[in-house]
Design a protein that fits this description.
The complex is a heterodimer of chains A (386) and B (418). Chain A contains 15 helices and nine strands. Chain A is an alpha/beta fold. Chain A folds into two domains: 14-173, Rossmann fold (3-Layer(aba) Sandwich); 183-381, Dehydroquinate synthase-like, alpha domain, CATH 1.20.1090. In chain B, strand 8 (156-161) and strand 9 form a beta hairpin. Chain B is of the alpha/beta class and 418 residues long. The chains are: A alpha/beta (386), B alpha/beta (418). The interface between A and B is large, with 53 and 54 residues. Strand 1 (7-9) of chain A pairs antiparallel with strand 2 of chain B.
């Protein structure tokens, strides 16, 4: 935890979590000087009831709002341009994203387009400079969140926008919307958050501000994920996972250590596999490799993984190994509960062999390319030891 | 294993960009440019300027920032007139941003100036209270010169109108500085006694944040990290003021503690501390150091489990494992008392352990026993008691103050438990 040279941390996201969190929205928006938000969501992904719950929360606040509920997995800049025109025409002044993944990515890019007053949103690119606060953006995640909702990234149609200003002003985590539909989806959410939080926490560039977020995220996932996978009706546990997901996004925005994230992302882009499933698959392999690399401190994750007593009882020299062991057991327990819904290899996940070459080629262009490729080759058919 | 508790409802926010390091000040020109600002008004006080700290800041800004204006007339107690005067200076010189270099009063003043210049207001009063600000203000960069107050990450400011004897409070997320710079050079010259009490101010933020009513997982994580490092580094830097790494660690810790308490609020320790400050003029950090063990004792029956969890970050694994579970909270109290004892020795007695030891420059006692009842009454008017786990009243306040005056542990059998 000792800081050495210059380091920085920033998290523009305010968190409101818990009972009736949505009912605070009118006040929160007013505090952001917004009176007419547009809700961006996918009715297919979140369902009518979730949209109703969100709009009902505005009750007699007198706020009018717009709704676009047609975001799909293939959202692109043409959609953003169309939404931008509506936003300007109807004089909306804030965006509320309801859901996870692409829905939030689209909302972030829409917010970028309207805030920069882009003449044509289709001209936006990864190189577009973003140097100012954007218009108010609120994210209301559902159980389908990936953890990137609170981050500085927006993925859209294989483009990656990155800026601290893209992160939302506020994340509202309400138990009426975060209930898990099934074990599989929430496991993917939890594992994606766990992967990113773990990598941030062991990162060679120490940062105590970031560690506060990753510590809390790791604790919540370890304590709650198995419970909610076994019993998707456990509202408190799934609320905790969504809290962890939001925290992991904040930690992730402040680290360059992102091997697991990159692996998850490439399979999401090319095979539509939830990133968390791939990250879970790679976890033991990648963390085992970090153990051999200089500067990465695996012992730091034992404390949030096990709590005070087990951490204190483990001699310092054995903490890294112990952490790996605890993680291995945790993944095995999850697999025990999920069975084939939690594939342990790419083969089990149904990735066709003929796709491997394409995937390796894409990964090869990354600065960590050679290493990423060795991991992918290993997870093709190699189950981690448990 | 219960390591993180999820409350039924919580809010957490710290939007400040934090930049820390031995040469973090050198990042300011880039940070200003990112925000399209070029001409900062530097707000500070005579003490800070006299200690040569503004020279270090100016050098770090170099020629990449156009000749910046320096105002060093912030009084020890924020003052409405100074706020208006500095706002005029800002306008007359077409400044576009503020760099606040100093402690609590400088930060409060800078936040006040920022409201006036951003809202183009003629009177700051119109913006007092909570939630009156609706949009981002001008770029404000905070450079704290003490490792304690945490005001570089708080969303409040207190400005005094000395003519009308009024204290105005302002609260808004828009009051958060855009950036806080934590640079070890800014605290290197702090003498041991000031280091000790400002460090204990930070400790009181972290500890109270960890047991007060609005605690949440993120404030908890910040508080635990702060407690771990303050307990380790505070005696080190008090003993060896030139310990650069220790200074940086304390600056980071005080900031972590500031983030924790501004999101979970504080209780009895701050409540009584504010009252002692206003009745007797005792420096805030000194009040915090003296009162902290009593805040723990007073509330222990309400939140013993939380308090017990502070033992591991403070004392480490061996002491934690050797202390039976039911004695851990009590052990935390004795470690805090011991820390005060150690700081008292290190500072040659200048770090007061009890209220009767607090003396002014002439060596005169600052808190005569007769005023304790007045302090106990004044504390009833302070808002900090709302977030204290156990209720307080005049008798309880007085009981705590009497014990803190004599330096005796609180007789926990005498507490009203409600």
């Amino acid at each position: 935890m000792e800081p050495a040279s210059v380091f920085a941390f920033t998290c523009p996201v305010k968190t409101n979590s818990g009972n009736k969190a949505l009912e605070h929205l009118p006040v929160e928006l007013a505090n952001l000087n917004a009176v007419k938000p547009i809700i961006i969501t996918s009715v297919e992904a979140v369902g009518r009831k979730a949209i109703q719950t969100l709009t009902n929360a505005f009750g007699d606040s007198g706020m009018t709002m717009g709704l676009f509920d047609g975001v799909t997995g293939t959202a692109d800049l043409t959609l953003i341009e169309n939404l931008k025109i509506i936003y300007i025409e109807k004089q909306y002044d804030a965006v509320i994203a309801l859901g996870g993944g692409t829905v939030v990515d689209a909302a972030k890019v829409l917010n970028l387009a309207v805030s920069l007053k882009a003449a044509d949103a289709r001209q936006l690119s990864e190189e577009t400079p973003i140097r100012k606060h954007l218009s108010p953006l609120v994210v209301v995640p559902t159980a389908a969140a990936t953890g990137l909702e609170t981050s500085k990234l927006a993925h859209l149609n294989r483009m990656v926008f990155s800026s601290e200003y893209l992160a939302p002003n506020l994340v509202v985590i309400d138990p009426r919307l975060t209930g898990a539909k099934d074990g599989k989806t929430i496991a993917a959410t939890g594992l994606a958050a766990l992967g990113r939080a773990l990598e941030a926490h062991i990162s060679a560039d120490k940062n105590p501000f970031r560690d506060a977020y990753s510590f809390a995220a790791i604790s919540f996932i370890k304590e709650n994920l198995l419970a909610v996978v076994n019993n998707p009706g456990d509202k408190k546990a799934s609320l905790a996972i969504l809290n962890a997901a939001a925290m992991s996004g904040c930690a992730f925005s402040n680290t360059d250590t992102a091997i697991l994230h990159k692996l998850g992302q490439v399979f999401h882009d090319m095979q539509h596999i939830p990133p968390g499933i791939i990250m879970g698959m790679c976890l033991s392999h990648v963390l085992g490799d970090y153990l051999k690399r200089e500067g990465y401190d695996l012992s730091a994750i034992l404390h949030p993984l096990t709590g005070d007593d087990e951490f204190a009882q483990t001699p310092a020299a054995k903490r890294s190994e112990a952490a790996l062991f605890v993680l291995g057991r945790f993944l095995a327990d999850l697999h025990g509960a999920l069975g084939k819904d939690m594939p342990r290899t790419l083969k089990e996940a149904g990735v066709p062999n003929y796709m491997m070459e394409d995937i390796l080629e894409v990964l090869g262009t990354d600065r960590d390319g050679p290493y990423l490729c060795t991991v992918v080759k290993r997870i093709w058919d190699d189950k981690p030891m448990t | 294993m219960i390591s993180m508790i999820l409350p039924d409802y919580y809010e957490f926010c710290c939007r400040v960009k934090l930049v820390a390091g031995h040469d973090a000040l050198e990042k300011i020109p880039g940070l200003l440019a990112d925000r399209e600002a070029q001409k900062p008004l530097i707000i500070t006080d005579k003490g800070v300027a006299g200690a040569g700290l503004i020279n270090i800041v100016s050098q770090a800004l170099g020629d990449r920032v156009s000749a910046s204006l320096i105002a060093d007339n912030v009084p020890p107690d924020s003052d409405l007139k100074v706020v208006h005067q500095l706002a005029q200076l800002y306008r007359d010189n077409a400044c576009d941003s503020i760099i606040a270099v100093g402690g609590g009063s400088v930060m409060d003043t800078a936040k006040g100036v920022n409201i006036v210049v951003s809202e183009n207001a003629s009177d700051l009063m119109a913006f007092s209270g909570v939630g009156t600000l609706k949009r981002p203000l001008k770029t404000l960069i905070a450079v704290p010169t003490t490792a304690g107050t945490g005001s570089e990450v708080t969303q409040v400011a207190v400005i005094k109108d000395h003519d009308k004897h009024l204290k105005m409070a302002f609260g808004s997320y828009f009051l958060l500085p855009d950036v806080s710079i934590l640079d070890s050079r800014m605290t290197m010259t702090m003498p041991p006694a000031i280091t000790a009490m400002t460090g204990m101010d930070a400790m009181s933020h972290a500890v109270e944040a960890y047991y007060c009513l609005q605690k949440n997982p993120l404030s908890d994580a910040h508080a635990l990290a702060a407690v771990t490092m303050i307990y380790k580094y505070l005696p080190m830097v008090a003993k060896n003021p030139a310990d650069q790494d220790g200074r940086l660690a304390m600056a980071v810790d005080a900031c972590l503690a500031g983030i924790a308490f501004s999101n979970s609020m504080v209780g009895l320790v701050h409540n009584l501390g504010h009252a002692i400050g206003s009745v007797c003029g005792v420096p805030h950090g000194m009040c915090m150091a003296i009162l902290l063990p009593y805040g723990l004792e007073y509330n222990m029956h309400k939140c013993e489990e939380s308090m017990a969890r502070l033992l591991l970050p403070m004392a480490g694994e061996a002491v934690y494992l050797d202390t039976p579970k039911e004695q851990r909270a009590q052990k935390v109290v004795s470690l805090i008392r011991q820390l005060n004892e150690d700081l008292n020795k290190i500072t040659g007695g200048r770090h007061a352990r009890f209220l009767q030891e607090v003396k002014d420059r002439e060596g005169k006692p600052m808190v005569p026993r007769e005023v304790l009842s007045q302090i106990a009454r004044a504390a009833l008017l302070d808002g900090a008691s709302i977030y204290n786990p156990e209720d307080t009243d005049y008798e309880d306040n007085l009981m705590v103050l009497e014990a803190a005056w004599e330096g005796k542990p609180l007789d926990r059998n005498k507490l009203k438990k409600g």
